Amino acid sequence: MAWVYLVVAGLLEVVWAFYMKKSEGFSLLTPSIITLITMIASFGLLSISMRSLPLGTAYTIWTGIGAVGAFVVGIAVLSEPITPMRVLAAALIVSGLVMMKLSSSH
């Protein structure tokens, strides 16, 4: 169950990063509130997952899901540029996440 919590926490990290961008420096109320609620939920689920997962594994997977997810949302929703170097960087992050999961005993 810890892995489920961790994945959901990582997905919530993508949500709060997106809404933080949309909040325009916390100057817009609704995106700011969504940012704070999803941030708290993300940290809470990360914390629960760390009850049984090692710190290094949980934190690495969480930040990796957030980083790659934000990259995808940036391209798909915010029309950010997609370049070979950015795609390679995201692919390297994903490969690191897979290796971290495979090396975990949980």
Question: What would you say about this model in short?
Answer:
The protein is mostly helical and 106 residues long. It is built from four helices and no strands. The chain starts with a helix and ends with a helix.
Write down how many β-strands occur, each being a DSSP E stretch of 2 or more residues. 0
| H-E order | HHHH
Mean pLDDT: 95
Which percent range describes the beta-strand content? under 5%
Structural class: mainly alpha
User: What assembly state would you assign to the polypeptide chains in this entry?
Assistant: single chain
Using the CA coordinates, give the radius of gyration.
15 Å
Q: Helix fraction? A: over 70%
What is the number of helical segments per DSSP (H or I, 4+ residues)?
4
Q: Which stretches of 5+ consecutive residues score pLDDT under 50?
A: none
Distance between the termini: 10 Å
Which overall shape is indicated by the principal axes computed on the Cα atoms? flat
Q: Can you tell me the number of structural domains?
A: 1
Biggest β-sheet strands, sense, barrel:
none
Layout of strands and helices, then pairs:
Elements: H1 2-22, H2 29-49, H3 55-76, H4 84-103
Describe the structure.
- The chain contains 4 helices and no strands.
- 79% of the residues lie in helices and 0% in strands.
- The chain starts with a helix and ends with a helix.
- The protein has one domain.
